[in-house]
Amino acid sequence: MSEEPIEHPQPSIQNLDRRHLLGLSSWSAAEIRLVLQTARRFREVLERPIPQVPTLRGTTVAMLFFEPSTRTKLSFQLAASRLSASTLGFSKSGSSVSKGETLKDTAQNIEAMKTDLVVLRHPSPGAPHFLARHLDAAIISAGDGAHEHPTQALLDLLTMAGRFETFEGLRVAIIGDVAHSRVARSNVFGLRALGAKVTLCGPPTMLPPRPEGFSREGLPDVRTTSALGDALDGCDVAMALRIQLERQDEPLFPSLREYHDRFGITRAHLDAHPDLLVMHPGPVNRGVELESAVVDHERAIILDQVTNGVALRMAVLYLLAGGGGAENQAAEKSWA
Predict the structure, then answer these.
(1) Whole-prediction pTM value?
(2) Cα–Cα nearest to 116, from 88, 97, 142, 154
(3) C-beta separation of 42 from 318 below 8 A
């Protein structure tokens, strides 16, 4: 483990041969590495006195958020701004959706305003895939129901890549409400594609009833356990998840206190595992998933995740807008 970013191997591909980012279930290791390598370069841009480049000047990014969001929405907006792209905002409240307009009609009307990329968060699983079939714009999923949240997983991978020499054999425990978590699913797909070993931990009622839903052809199955001590044994990274109360039809545990007693990561866990790093996609419920002393500990790299989120989403916007093509390569040389 290192406090400084590691120089990882160069990706074996130079261009992203995809129009959309809908999820990571079919993404190859080479594609993921290309995104991470591009994000590292944009992370360097963010450290400059003027953290902005003209790469996507003239490009318009529409932000369609049908669910509340703070980090993801602001991160995408800032990423677009840092690339000099224009943004078009949308929120469900006060829109034509409240008057009965369909998702398809809303998106097509926004596309008719000459938007190039659409960032969509929606409570229905598969909504980004639906839009991808009906729009010419590039679609980026910012989370669809309990399905996937690919850019969150990619920024999590970027954060881990800054701390470890390789993903091969890296041991990651994802702890909490796994069954309802789109973050968990995308992380499993990405981590396993890169060679990491993944353990899912939580109450039996919060683990996926069909673990094959987290499987990928040609990759080993993830391990599951309901014992936190077992999950943390030999673990390099523990990723705690928020309890998705809004997606539960009925309570899945007796009380928050009992949940914290059995599955909350505490300072005692950090003391017992001196090399363990702690992550969380946010928002954190202090005293539930993580003890407050853990959130504020130097081995909690949650704020690194937030910072990396801007660079990662810059990379995604850049690549899906045609990054790697001759025109964008020329633009890139102007700010490198």
Answers:
(1) 0.90
(2) 88
(3) yes
Which CATH code, of 3.40.50.1370, 3.40.640.10, 3.90.180.10, 3.40.50.720, is assigned to 29-148+308-335?
3.40.50.1370
306 neighbors 31 (Cβ within 8 angstroms): no
Domain locations in the chain as residue ranges: 29-148+308-335, 164-300
SS3 24: coil
Helix ranges restricted to H, the chain:
29-46, 71-82, 103-111, 127-132, 150-161, 182-193, 228-232, 256-263, 267-272, 292-295, 302-320, 326-335
Q: Which residues contact 72 (CB under 8 A, 6 or more apart)?
A: 121, 142, 143, 149, 151, 152, 309
Among 122-126, 167-171, 250-254, name the one with the lowest average pLDDT.
250-254
Domains 29-148+308-335 and 164-300 share a fold: yes
Report, in angstroms and rounded to the nearest whole number, the Rg of the chain calculated over CA atoms: 20
* CA–CA gap between residue 127 and residue 16 (Å, rounded): 22
Residue 78 DSSP SS3: helix
Kindly report, residue by residue over 153-204, the tens digit of the pLDDT: 999 999 999 999 999 999 999 999 998 899 999 999 999 999 999 999 999 9
Does the domain made of 164-300 have the CATH classification 3.40.50.1370?
yes
Tell which residue, 181, 193, 215, has the closest CA to residue 289.
Answer: 181
Q: How far apart are CA 258 and CA 261, in angstroms?
A: 5
Q: List Cα–Cα distances, 220 to 78, 189, 217, 270, in angstroms.
A: 37, 11, 8, 29
Amino acid letter at 96? S
